[in-house]
Design brief:
The protein has 138 residues and is an alpha/beta fold. It has 3 helices and 8 strands. The protein starts with 6 loop residues before the first strand and ends with a strand. It comes from Streptomyces levis.
Length: 138
Amino acid sequence: MDLTIHASFLPHDDPDAALAFYRDTLGFEVRNDVGYEGMRWITVGPAGQPGTNIVLHPPAADPGVTDDERRTITEMMAKGTYASIVLATTDVDAVFDRLQAGDAEVVQEPVDQPYGVRDCAFRDPAGNMVRIQQLKGQ
């Protein structure tokens, strides 16, 4: 079986702030920017990896989500516990410096983990955890 991850979804509560973080701070390419009924879905991805996409979407836009679920999602996003993504790099310290210079909210400075990676963590403007890892020896 030949499977790859084509898209992963992260919620946003401010499309312009999300776009600035993923495009301007992380350096991702904008692949699509679609508006519908006052909402925006923005697809971004790392340069040189056209098959890997992150879709930044309005949370709870699905009509099957109840009002109680929408409130829970909003509360979890505010706490930073709703969604996360793990990215990889060959130089976590350089990426950390770039993100810190871009005023991203630092959660964890680069540290060597006992499970074989050096990593750091930030929150994007919607509160999503963005963890960046570098394999030891790279």
